[in-house]
Amino acid sequence: MNERLRELVRQAKPSPNLIWEDSEIKRFAELVRQDEREACAALCEEKALYFQYDFIAPYDVADSCAEEIRRRTE
How many CB atoms are closer than 10 A to CB 8? Predict the structure, then answer.
């Protein structure tokens, strides 16, 4: 298990009990979704750097993509 995933488990499961409650599972799932959205947004921003000096639409599209991923709530 990678270090980031361990950290998400720690955040979702504060009690030492080995059996997860439904609310803890839901919290873990939400943390993973948030982490994935942030990773996707960061990737969009990284790709946008390739277009920043071309003054063409793909830069704007990539930047908008990052914003939309961060706003996503589902």
Answer: 19
- Residue-range domain boundaries for the chain: 3-13+20-71
CA torsion, points 52, 39, 69, 12, in degrees to nearest 10?
-160
Phi-psi region of 38 (alpha: psi -120 to 50; beta: other; left: phi over 0): alpha
In this predicted model, which residue has the larger pLDDT, 22 or 66?
Answer: 22
Distance between CA atoms of residues 65 and 42, nearest Å: 10
Model confidence pLDDT, tens digit, residues 38-57: 888 887 787 777 666 666 66
pTM over 0.70: no
Element (H, E) at 57: helix 57-71
